[in-house]
Amino acid sequence: MLERTIKSYKYERSTPIRFKIPPQGLLDKKFCERINEEILEYSTGGWEKKKATESLGSSLPETSGIYIFTWAPYFQLSMDEGEKIESIRMVLYIGKAGGDNNSNLSKRYNSEYSKIVQKYPDFHWSNSELKTREEKIQQVLNLWDLEYWFAVFKNDKHILRIEKALIKLYNPPANKIYTTYKVGKPTNAF
Fold this sequence. Notes:
Elements: H1 2-8, H2 23-27, H3 29-42, E1 48-51, E2 65-71, E3 90-97, H4 105-113, H5 133-141, E4 146-152, H6 159-170
Antiparallel strand pairs: 1-4, 2-3, 2-4
Helix pairs in contact: 3-6
């Protein structure tokens, strides 16, 4: 399906996925370490990673947690001879199951994502401004080779706060809270 779609739109421009990564949090080593330590403390063992597919939801735990959709494009960086080839992962969407929404990882995936993951690749050539959360999610979930990272939490107490911290840190393009940072007029330091 993907190859046929790419071939049919070969000479047309696709709708870009806009990444606006705020560096302030990612540059703060202590802040990043603290978030990671909290995830390890409040989860049952840190992150797990699976390939995002239509049927993934049935193999996910029926517990609360935080999840991240990432994408590693086909382009890979070749290293010196004998070294591993690397793909750069991009954080597309961060969400939670549990907490205040009375859900779990399996239910959330099955109810919201399984019906769109890799189903509509021609969505990338819609050439329209993506405004709603649903449109943005549909765009990113129709990339191929998506990964679904998740951390199972011991209880719901810290899920919302950690989810917000991760969204603030990465500013994923499909999140509703996605913020466009405006740069003001520069001022002299002295």
